[in-house]
């Protein structure tokens, strides 16, 4: 009976670990994408700042380019930069939370395996 309870506890912990790992990878991918957006906005902003005010600047909309004042494009890039920074801060918080959850799940698994060495042997025999 205890063996069955330990096995079901192991399956639950394993499920939580898989779920948490997936969420963590998703957050890391989102962070990587936001870093790219931030860098692109920063580089575009730097290039725009080098242009004189009377330079014709164009904004890409699909396959069309629309004439826009430089100030509008600068504001848009600054806003993209700020939005990316806010999103990155939020994602960093989520990542830290998920890492804590992952550590907790690992500790639970470790405790379970120390509590029932027979279960650890069964798991090892299944993975071979």
Automatic annotation (TrEMBL):
UniProt family annotation: Belongs to the prefoldin subunit beta family.
Name the record gives this protein: PREFOLDIN 1
Record key words, sorted: Chaperone, Coiled coil
Top-level taxon of the source organism: Eukaryota
Pfam families (UniProt xref): Prefoldin_2
Keyword set includes Coiled coil: yes
An example Gene Ontology biological process: response to cold
Coiled coil: 31-115
CDD domains assigned to the protein according to its UniProt record, in alphabetical order: Prefoldin_1
